Amino acid sequence: MRTAPESCASMADVRAGVDSLDRELVALLAERFRFMDAAARIKPERAQVRDEDRKRQVIENAQAHAQALGLDPKLVGELWDWLVEASIAHELAAWDQARTAAE
Prior knowledge:
The protein has helices at residues 11-42, 52-68, 73-102. It is an all-alpha fold. It has a single domain, classed as Chorismate mutase (Chorismate Mutase Domain, subunit A).
């Protein structure tokens, strides 16, 4: 269990909290990318991997959540733009690999 930020009394507490959160974030990213693997498996056409309307929706949702939590929505939008692009690249590679393996 990590110390709450407002209860941190030392930089060691802060660093331990950040390290703990980083482990959780990496685990969540791994799970998110497994969803991209599922999408690659499900989508019948490679052109369906990039969906600009869905990308915009995902980024807007993240920005709305950021705003509600008092975070800078512009910063979160930039982070999510990168995340979605990385997810698309991953999904494209997974789509190609699944079709190549099936041949």
